[in-house]
Fold:
Amino acid sequence: MSNATAVDLRNRGGLIAIFEEFRDELDDHNDRRERLIKQSRDITNLSKKVIFLLHRMMTDDASDTHTSTAGLEDRGDRARAFKAASRAKEKLREIQSIFANIRKELEGDRFWRYQRQVSPGLQEYIEALSFTHYLETGELISFGGVQSTLADEQGTPYFPLPLEDYVLGLSDLTGELMRYAISSIARRGGRNKANDVCAFVRNCRADFEVLTPYFKELRKKQNVTSQSLQKIEDAAYAIAVRSSEYDLSPEMLDDIVTRTVSSSFGSGGEEDSDKRKRPRDDDDGEYER
Amino acid sequence: MDSQNLEYINNLLEQDNEVREKIKEQVADLDKKTRTMSGVLNKIHSTPSSQLPPLLNQIKPVLASCKDTNASLANIIPANQFWRWKEMWSISLRNAVFAATLVGYLESGILLTLPQVREILGIDASWSDRYALPAEDYLHGVISLVNELSRLAVNAVTMGNFEEPIKISSFVKDIFAGFSMLNLKNDTLRRRYDSLKYDIKKIEEVVYDVSLRKLAPARSRST
Structure:
């Protein structure tokens, strides 16, 4: 396409040559697109694994600190969260190296050309990263915090982090937190945790609400966040109402709940299929018995 | 979310919003120009070829004025963000490509190449990370050209120009041959390419009618 010569009716060859260039250009574009879709899918899968790992580590180790007192329990819980976060960070590094590898494909103006292909993996990564960050610090990871994990040693970003992916990734975090809160509610110290998560998710929802006019997809995700929030609130409510019926210390209540959970379902593996509902059903079972 | 982060986000949003508003303004301008051009170009279906030059001269200043709009757009788009915003003007730009290539065909019977169109529309190749004419948009414009020429083939005959359909037929077949070399995915370009065969069929029918009745001079067939 470098020569600006006209293609006239008597020169089919010239036109063919020009379309050959278009073909190469389009092929190149489609190939790159396919490669990035594949990489994005890999990133999504690895990110999901990180999220599962976090859920698992936060629930599986529950029995470790079974006999400790409330104070120690709290500390044990922090320790578990740190351990989970550091394991997750190792896994996240794997994902970060994929991002480092596709950096070349996304150089210059290419990033925005393929942003839609990269976006699903990126959002899932942000979800996993922010969940890790929450367990470690109890806070929402900042925009700069996310961008800094996607940069080389000199701090140069691999590509500009789109605000949309940051916000949508965080919006998905609220769903994971709901699962986390519900599955830990039936455990020692879990009710406090559920309350913390509840307050946190409530803040997230309020923060995101302001941003909804700017991102089409956020509207839908806000509805999901609202549902998640309601599930946590309902669970917290049920716990509050029922614990008031019994004049028991929180520790004794914990023991009862733990016993019930382990007798009816065994320990662990709680965050599988219908983790949204089950813990609340557990409670119902306990008090009817 | 802490206040610092929120402020950062709001800043980014504001910047983006500013860019978006500025682009909108220019796209509205570009749209106005392409609408003017297609309004005038619609008259080719009722204008005998002898009277075409004044009609085309009417379009040229409008076509040239697209340069200003394109230059303004290039100035608005931040570095490396061409693909981020391009959806906003793709349709207008394709219409501009269509107008340019149609004028090119009517004037000299040629298909203007992408670099030629770029020059007419004043899109500097050095802006490529901010504002460019991608192959995809050029090809969309060319398909619109073929769509329009299939109409012209019919209307030219009505106006008594029996040679035009034959010229168009050969021109469009070459373009079709070019398109069939591309490996198109299932996107709008692919769908529009698939529809080209109906245009070709329509043109062929006109050529058939004209030839059968020996209305067109025989030598034109060989070109």
Notes: The helical segments of chain B are 3-41, 52-76, 82-85, 90-108, 114-120, 135-158, 164-179, 188-212.
